[in-house]
Design a protein that fits this description.
Strand order of the largest sheet of chain A: 2-1-5-3-4
Structural class of chain B: alpha+beta
Helix content of chain A: 25-40%
Shape of chain A: globular
Radius of gyration of chain A: 16 Å
Distance between the termini of chain A: 49 Å
Largest sheet of chain B: 8 strands, mixed
Number of strands of chain A: 5
Number of domains of chain B: 3
Shape of chain B: globular
CATH architecture of the largest domain in chain A: Roll
Strand content of chain B: 15-25%
Number of strands of chain B: 31
Strand order of the largest sheet of chain B: 3-5-1-12-9-10-11-20
Oligomer: heterodimer
Helix content of chain B: 10-25%
Number of helices of chain B: 19
Largest sheet of chain A: 5 strands, mixed
Radius of gyration of chain B: 28 Å
CATH architecture of the largest domain in chain B: 2-Layer Sandwich
CATH superfamily of the largest domain in chain B: Aldehyde oxidase/xanthine dehydrogenase, molybdopterin binding domain
Structural class of chain A: alpha+beta
Chain lengths: ~160, ~800
């Protein structure tokens, strides 16, 4: 097993981590850095609970090797709020009642964030399509979909 | 008028009941701060456990050699059935923690390893040598009850069992619940129409997105701490302590937030494995975290069902008789499943008033994964076929299915199938409102005149009672802090349903403080939290709610007694409103701040009165009676029933067989909705879980081996499968012994969904299928067979 020293920008801050070559990004976050907001639901890229943004793209962090992330930018659920100010998606999700057990929520939020970053005014179909890889067993999705729409509306309302 | 009632009615506190306040746990969950079991940090001393599991559905263990595994560097412990002679189980103690001489399903735990990392533990498993002698398996419950079937549990009869469970030693039947009411044999000739059908329901999996995780640690004195993702910290403490022969006080179970339960994390399943492995390495925490594959078949699954229905009505549509026989494919161990069989028995007619009834609900050991509780506890399975038969009966007598249900559904005062008198329920109102919302009187039009899609509407109703021991109890503690804020301690678990929020609302309302002054103490910890039987059966709002309201009222009384003495007033003239004690007589007012901890000074420096306020409350139903073993009759079988109705509109694609749910309506009588938006969220989520089970879900079992243990091969509903319109309707007919009139609704919304969809598919294309899931492939092939498509 070889070890590698990598540098990542994690939620805006620089982190230097030594990782074994077979460690996934998910393991690095949870086990090396104790960043437990990102959840492990299947470790095989099927449930979406571990979704993070890798250079702005939503990925299942259980399917990415940590060494691949050297010199790249990672955003996790812990990086969505700034100075105690929630992301509009987080706010809208609370207000819509879109949270139940909460285990899928970190991944759901990052898939939604990536969607709104590339498409500020998505249709219902586009939202459903963007979230299709994030499984939820509690809510039935409708309130989460509504929250994404509401967050998009709020962002539109803010002058650029 | 300055009566308390008048003032109270205008104050904002009681408005908390029925108000959709935001969840107490929402913020920490959206920022990634909420702690789940696998998030708890244990440092570098943590060991990782893996389990060696049986590859055979049924076999004798002839030889087990762990010496090579033990010798592997990094391995700290290897345990086997040698280490677990005792039995464990909730209602029937029929399993060892690790198998000893015999394995009974693919996945049965044979040995456990703890090592410094998961890879080493996994490697050690491959070094364990086991010689099995395969035995013929039982793979079907009807075969299982036949004389030809191999006997899976020769020990049945010696196992410890609850007194309301009736095993048949020398057979594979671990419970047979019977209803004998009226005279169905005499009733059949009176029937104008009789329908006989057989339906199957496949095994499914709960698939909470959080897999099971447990971390156990023993100290040198034999005190155990268990961190577990658990719906049942207290039941786990009790069952594991009993199995190990130790005092409950030696085992502390700590359970953080659950990433979904749906029954899979009730009772004990994998947690005892972690405890037994950790016993071999005192001082070291040992973590067992199931893989997603293990999650699919090594904890509980929803048991399969083979159901035979016979029902008849007179020429006016009045139900005269039912004979229903349920064979539950309950799996290798039925320690929990026996009570689903019982529930399926006493509720075995569905929510109908039927004078002549025979029900046989039979729990059958098979060599399938272990059947356990799942949202609905037997009700989704039995309603699945039953509600299709009701539709068929209505059609046969040329009555509208909704009218038929209105005519025959259970009403207040009816003597129901077990001989119990029905309490006030809003089932008729649910039926009417759901029918109205789906526009029942207007037949679904084809989506477009030339379309290759056909639309249909379907309807189904349900009932479900909390299924539990008659004396399942709750307790709560309400203590106040220096600034008047409140800590509510409970032993019931926040599994996503929102119970911490509802408990905070009830405590605030009953005590007289603002909602945001109340915190519910988590994580649940058996050492510090008050006792709760289990977070199951949709019982917390009702049962734990009563305990919390009792504790809040106790705290309130302590405060008012102290202040009335200080003010020299009648306590009846005092109230607590918005966090202050007020007098309606003298209009005096005093903040709770400080007085709830330090008390109040007596006049003239003569000392102090009062002290830290701690309210206690408990609740246990005392009125549930036993039922006769031969007839299932008794004065009161259950605490109460929650009832409801669902209606769906579907579209069937004639080219692909794909069924799309266009609209769903879900209406339930919840007694009183403490938090209406959260009730609606339960109804929506339950409906979608029901849709998922109706259209997609089935554990594919081949010779006892699950063929599809992954989310790729076992599909659940995604964001793209959800109907665009779901209407959730709340009906409120108060529960006489519920807090503020509330009763539970957590499980119920997925109970009638499969038959509602099946009835809608029938309405669209005129085809009935013998079992869900109604996948595109199955529907298409059924249409081909029926000659509807070529």
């Amino acid at each position: 097993m070889s070890f590698h020293r990598i540098t990542v920008t994690l939620n805006g801050a620089t982190e230097e981590v030594e990782v074994p070559s077979n460690m996934t990004l998910l393991q690095m976050l949870r086990e090396k850095l104790a960043m437990t907001g990102t959840k492990n639901g299947c470790a095989s890229g099927e449930c979406g609970a571990c979704t993070v943004l890798w250079n702005g793209e939503p990925v299942n962090s259980c399917m990415v090797l940590a060494v691949e992330c050297d010199r790249s930018e990672i955003v996790t659920v812990e990086g969505l709020a700034h100075d105690n100010q929630l992301d509009p998606l987080q706010e809208a999700l609370i207000e819509a009642g879109g949270v139940q057990c909460g285990f899928c929520i970190p991944g759901m939020l990052l898939s939604a964030r990536a969607l709104l970053d590339r498409n500020p005014d998505p249709t219902d179909y586009e939202i459903r399509d963007a979230l299709v890889g994030n499984l939820c067993r509690c809510t039935g999705y409708l309130r989460i979909i509504e929250a994404v729409k509401e967050a998009a509306r709020r962002r539109e309302a803010v002058p650029a | 008028m300055t009566t308390k009632e008048a003032k109270h009615g205008n104050s904002r506190i009681p408005e908390l009941i029925g108000k959709s306040v935001p969840r107490v746990d929402a913020r920490e969950k959206v920022i990634g701060a909420a702690i789940f079991t696998d998030d708890v940090q244990f440092g570098p001393g943590l060991l990782h456990a893996r389990i060696l599991r049986s590859p055979h559905p049924h076999a004798l263990v002839k030889k087990l050699d762990v010496s090579k595994a033990r010798a592997l560097p990094g391995v700290k412990a290897v345990v086997t059935g040698e280490d677990t002679p005792g039995y464990i189980g909730l209602y029937l103690q029929d399993r060892h923690i690790f198998c000893r001489d015999r394995v009974r399903y693919v996945g049965d735990p044979v040995a456990g390893v703890a090592a410094t990392d998961e890879e080493t533990a996994e490697q050690a498993l491959s070094l364990i040598e086991v010689d099995y002698e395969p035995l013929p398996p039982v793979l079907d419950p009807e075969f299982g009850v036949s004389p030809e079937a191999p006997l899976l549990h020769p020990g049945l009869g010696k196992y410890e069992v609850a007194n309301f469970i009736f095993p048949k030693p020398g057979t594979n039947i671990s419970n047979h619940f019977k209803i004998r009411r009226g005279d169905s044999d005499a009733a059949w000739p009176e029937c104008a129409v009789v329908v006989e059908r057989k339906y199957r329901v496949p095994h499914i999996q709960h698939v909470p997105i959080e897999p099971h995780a447990a971390i156990a640690k023993w100290d040198q004195e034999g005190n155990i701490t268990l961190w577990a993702s658990s719906q049942s910290p207290f039941a786990q403490r009790n069952l594991i302590a009993k199995a190990l022969g130790i005092s409950q006080s030696k085992l502390q179970v700590i359970s953080p937030y659950l990433g979904g339960g749906f029954g899979s994390k009730a009772g004990v399943s994998m947690e005892s494995l972690a405890v037994v492995i950790a016993r071999a390495v005192p001082g070291r925490p040992v973590k067992l975290r199931l893989t997603r594959e293990e999650e699919f078949y090594t904890t509980f699954v929803r048991q399969g069902l083979v159901a035979h229905f016979k029902m008849g009505c007179d020429k006016d549509g009045n139900l005269l008789a039912m004979e229903n026989k349920y064979y539950w494919d309950a799996g290798a161990y039925t320690e929990y499943g026996v009570n689903m069989t019982r529930a399926g028995g006493y509720s075995g007619t569905g929510p109908y008033d039927v004078p002549n009834v025979k029900v046989d609900s039979i729990c059958v050991y098979t060599n399938h994964p272990v059947g356990g509780p799942m949202r609905g506890f037997g009700m989704p399975e039995l309603h699945s076929g039953l509600e299709q038969c009701i539709d068929d009966l209505a059609h046969a007598i040329k009555m509208d299915p909704v009218e038929f249900r209105k005519l025959n559904c259970v009403r207040e005062g009816d003597v129901i199938v077990t001989g119990m008198k029905m309490h006030a329920i809003g089932l008729s109102e649910c039926i009417e409102k759901a029918a109205q919302a789906i526009n029942w009187d207007h037949k679904a039009p084809p989506s477009a005149p030339a379309s290759r899609k056909r639309r249909g509407k379907g309807f189904a109703i349900m009932w479900k009672a909390p299924a539990m021991p008659p004396n399942a109890g709750s307790s709560a503690r309400v203590s106040l802090n220096e600034d008047g804020t409140v800590t509510v301690a409970v032993g019931g678990q926040e599994i996503g349903q929102g119970t911490f929020t509802v408990m905070a609302q009830m405590a605030a309302a009953a005590l007289g403080v603002p909602y945001d002054w109340v915190k519910v103490a988590g994580p649940v910890d058996t050492k510090y939290s008050p006792y709760e039987w289990q977070t199951v059966a949709s019982r917390l709002t009702w049962s734990m709610g009563n305990a919390v309201v009792g504790a809040a009222k106790d705290a309130r009384k302590q405060i008012l007694d102290m202040v009335s003495e200080s003010w020299n007033e009648d306590p009846d003239d005092l109230d607590i409103v918005n966090g202050s004690v007020i007098s309606y007589k003298t209009e005096e007012m005093m903040s709770l701040k400080n007085i709830v901890i330090y008390g109040l000074p007596k006049p003239n420096d003569q000392g102090w009165m009062g002290g830290p306020v701690v309210g206690r409350g408990n609740f246990m139903p005392t009125y549930v009676t036993g039922l006769d073993a031969e007839t299932g009759q008794g004065p009161r079988a259950v605490v109460h029933y929650t009832t409801g109705a669902q209606a769906v509109e579907v579209e069937v694609d004639m080219d692909t067989g794909k069924v799309e749910i266009i609209r769903g309506v879900t209406a339930f009588d919840v007694g009183k909705a403490i938090n209406p938006e959260m009730v609606r969220a339960q109804m929506e989520g339950g409906l979608v879980q029901g849709i998922s089970t109706a259209l997609f879900e089935s554990l594919q079992l081949k010779e006892g081996v699950v063929q599809n243990p992954s989310f790729v091969d076992y599909r659940i509903a995604t964001s793209s499968d959800v109907p665009h319109h779901i209407e959730a309707i709340i009906v409120e007919v108060p529960q006489d012994d519920g807090p503020f009139g509330a009763r539970g609704v957590g499980e119920h919304p997925m109970v009638p969904t499969i038959p509602a969809i099946a009835n809608a598919i029938y309405d669209a294309i005129g085809i009935r299928m013998d079992a869900p899931p109604y996948t595109a492939e199955k529907v298409y092939l059924a249409m081909v067979e029926a000659g509807i498509v070529k």
